[in-house]
Design goal:
Elements: E1 5-8, H1 18-30, H2 38-45, H3 50-61, H4 69-84, H5 91-100, E2 105-109, H6 113-122, E3 133-135, H7 147-156, E4 163-167, H8 170-178, E5 182-186, H9 194-199, E6 203-205, H10 211-220
Parallel strand pairs: 1-2, 1-4, 2-3, 4-5, 5-6
Helix pairs in contact: 1-4
């Protein structure tokens, strides 16, 4: 059977959330007394679940996070999303083209269901996915483990080998590869590491307008 299910990551693939979220996360980490740049925040945490991020931060600081630390960070992040969040360039047109071809689509993101839903609403992308949204909160292990992508494929009734994943992070590409899926790695972010994405197993592309053709070609192979 041809590959037919396209699984999208959310942050950095559907919505341009990484600059906003990483700036606020970096600020929150520095407020703990742990010096860190935004570049370091991106390198260490992008693509991972918040549970994993918090465990990594506690490992760095050597102490537990303060009560309500996550609640306060999420409140600031959600407010910033509502005020500033935009879709990735050309993604709306691309999703419309895929939907017109009746291409099955879903989202599998390390973010919480609440965060994913908010991100899609703020950018008018929610209608392309409906309830076909899967979060790392649904599985035992987040990216870079394959659990989330395998869960999404199972719920969508697709074999892993028949799935195409669109990712922008090394943990995400690694997870999709481990799940036995084809990975198209979006590398348009100027802070992305194209070599790392390719080394992890992603097929690199830089323009969302190219995605429908890439999906069509990949589905035939």
């Amino acid at each position: 059977m041809n590959k037919k299910l396209v699984i999208f990551d959310c942050d950095g693939v559907l919505v341009d959330s990484e600059p906003i979220a990483n700036a606020l996360l970096c600020e929150a980490i520095n407020a703990l007394g742990q010096p860190m740049t935004i570049a370091q925040t991106r390198e260490r945490f992008v693509g991972r679940s918040m549970t994993d991020v918090m465990q990594l931060i506690e490992g760095l600081t050597g102490k537990s996070l303060p009560p309500r630390w996550l609640d306060q960070l999420q409140a600031r992040t959600y407010a910033a999303f509502q005020a500033q969040l935009t879709p990735i360039a050309h993604i709306s047109t691309t999703l419309a083209q895929l939907a017109e071809k009746r291409q099955p689509l879903c989202v599998a993101s390390s973010g919480s269901l609440e965060k994913i839903a908010l991100s899609l609403r703020c950018t008018n992308l929610a209608g392309f996915f409906g309830d076909r949204i899967f979060s790392s909160s649904m599985v035992a292990r987040g990216k870079p483990y394959p659990d989330l992508f395998l869960h999404a494929a199972d719920k969508m009734g697709a074999a892993p080998a028949d799935c195409i994943v669109v990712e922008d992070s090394v943990p995400g590409v690694t997870a999709a590869q481990a799940a036995g899926m084809t990975v198209l790695a979006y590398g348009a972010d100027p802070d992305a590491d194209p070599n790392a994405l390719q080394t992890a197993g992603g097929r690199l592309f830089h323009d969302m307008r190219d995605l429908p053709q890439l999906v069509a070609v990949t589905a035939q192979n």
